[in-house]
Amino acid sequence: MSQEHPQKTILLVDDDRTLHALQGFALKKNGYRMYSAYDGREGLDMALEIMPDLILVDYMMPRFTGGDFIHAIRTDERYRTLQSIPVIMLTAAEHDESVIRKMMEDGLSSYLNKPFGHHELLSILQSTLFESEKKVREHRMLAELQSNQAFFTTLLDNFPGLLFTTDTAGKITYLTTGKSNLSDGEKVDVADKTIVDLFSFEHSTIQSLLETLKTGEKTLITEAAFLAGPESTIPVELHVTLLHNDDLEILGLLGIARDLRAVKQLETEKLERERVTAIAQALATVNHEINNPLMPILGNVQLLQDELSGMPADVTEKLESIRSSAERIGESVRKMSTISQPILKEYYNGQMIIDLEKSS
Fold first, then answer.
1. Domains along the chain?
2. What percent of the chain lies above the pLDDT cut of 70?
């Protein structure tokens, strides 16, 4: 235990010298450094001198009580630097809840009823120091964020997408659309909305999304629909990951949404180009495969008409019909071979065919 708290300094303020001897031995044995003061005013002066990590102060001291000690730290400018130090009150008196609440409001961290054993004291010391260190980290983080507020504001205002955070229930706690056009310049209403209210994707509940991120990939990347309005959806690429604090406790989600409209438009245009290319290739194939047998048909019909001038009228009429139909086929095939922008029209039972008259 001697290495567990090698740097922690404890100031004990109590008029009972026996308590100093007993608890001083236990604290030193467990790796703490202990200083002693025997009344409240001496304790305040010593606290300013050594700036301990934690103060233990007795409530029932003559002339200057533990309550006076707490009040002085709270209100006296001379002791303002002591306000961040956690204080545990030691008391043998019975207090009603209002007295305890008042001391807590004045800055008391916790209290311990006398008599107490070494294990009780060590337990409350460890828990109070842990909470104090946690608050110090949070205050430091907040101070750093505030000092860099202008930088982060500029960064978020120019972010090329939608960035948001949620709490553990999925409720939106922060959202900015940055320089993106996802909101078309309008402020997105996120009041009482969750991530599943703003995005339509594979997870319909926040619970399933959290479970996926806890047990699977650290970041979920998926296509989703941003529900920009009652009748407006925008395709986005959604990146979602867990948001932690310094102790790796899950605070919620951090998400980024990238506008896919331009990408989808390019994909649509690419598919259209591929479709037109495929149609052009098909038409070129039709032109080649039909023209080859069509030319001999036209040639042979012409020979028959020239050589058999005395044929019956019905035979002549049939040959002329064959020639006319073959020429019409040839004309249609030649027209199809020049089409670069096909226009479709409905033919039968929903089938679509190329409109030769309107296509170019």
1. 9-147 (3.40.50.2300), 152-259 (3.30.450.20), 265-354 (1.10.287)
2. 88
